[in-house]
Amino acid sequence: MNIALVSYQNKKLTQSHLEEDFQLSKFLENKGLIVKRAAWNDLQIDWKQFDVVILKSPWDYHDNFDSFIMWISDLDKAGIKILNPFKTILWNSDKHYLQQIADDGLPVIESVFLEKGIAADLAELLNKSLYKKLIIKPCISAGAKNTILLTLDNVSLIQNEINGLLANESFLVQPFMEEILHGEFSFIFFNGNFSHSILKVPKTGDFRVQSEHGGTVQKITTDIAHQQAVSKYVEKYGRATLYARVDGIISNGTFVLMELELIEPYLFLNCHEHGFDNYYQGLLQLIK
């Protein structure tokens, strides 16, 4: 069975991200699988040679979104097995999905959407909010790109920038939750089964937890109650998914969702002694 482990052509990967891709490829090859790392937008690749296409790290998809969706749609039409499935990826690629989850009654950080082509009054948005700080980020994005902390002190400076961006894309607005300063939890699942969890902590003076912005990662053990609460998101929206990463905070003892990552999350496989094997076992169950 030929498997494509999909990445992208940009070379600006951190060493740890590169290592996870290469280590996973090697691990799967040692298990007897035929694996090739391939950039999703490499025009030289004949994707029909693959039996399974796994989206591992296509981390520029949001910069070329229409082309990305067209590419993955073509794979689906050709009958190539995609992990995660095409319909799941399409749904999860736009953060409007958070509204559906909230409507379904699962805890989600309060979300407001600024729609493409409609100018926003950020000062009015802040004044109507119960919170003094808001986070604004694109509905189609990754890696904290164009993610901005909005306060009364900077609203006049940011107003024109955001409206300029709104001309081309929609934005998500959420309250800044102070709990994030103590860390964002990530729960990782493979084929619906819980594998491991980590805590991502921003550097002092920042709110972004990504490593490229100075964030750090801690291996943690979470209690069963939180695992069970988090698993509800995967059970409802992540069926038949090879991987799912559920990101959120613990607020007043309750897990609250920030993002459900079903496209291309970093999986912190080295943070659990069985991380790579849990991935492999989940893959086997989906391709056998």
Explain the overall architecture.
- This protein is of the alpha+beta class.
- It has eight helices and 13 strands.
- It has helices spanning 15-30, 65-77, 86-92, 97-103, 122-128, 155-166, 224-237, 275-287, and strands spanning 2-7, 34-39, 52-55, 81-83, 112-114, 134-138, 148-150, 171-175, 184-190, 193-201, 216-220, 243-251, 254-261.
- The strands form three sheets. A five-stranded antiparallel β-sheet has the order 11-10-9-12-13. The chain has a four-stranded parallel β-sheet with strand order 2-1-3-4, with helices on both faces. The chain has a four-stranded antiparallel β-sheet with strand order 5-8-6-7, covered by helices on one side.
- The relative contact order is 0.15.
- The mean pLDDT is 91.
- State the helix count: 8
From the spread of the alpha carbons, the general shape counts as: globular
Task: List how many beta strands DSSP finds.
Answer: 13
Uncertain regions spanning at least 5 consecutive residues: none
User: Largest beta sheet: what is the strand line-up?
Assistant: 11-10-9-12-13
Percentage of residues assigned to helices: 25-40%
Output the structural class. Answer: alpha+beta
**Strand composition percent:** 25-35%
Largest sheet: 5 strands, antiparallel
N- to C-terminal separation?
10 Å
What does the average pLDDT come to? 91
Report the order of strands and helices: EHEEHEHHEHEEHEEEEHEEH
Radius of gyration: 19 Å
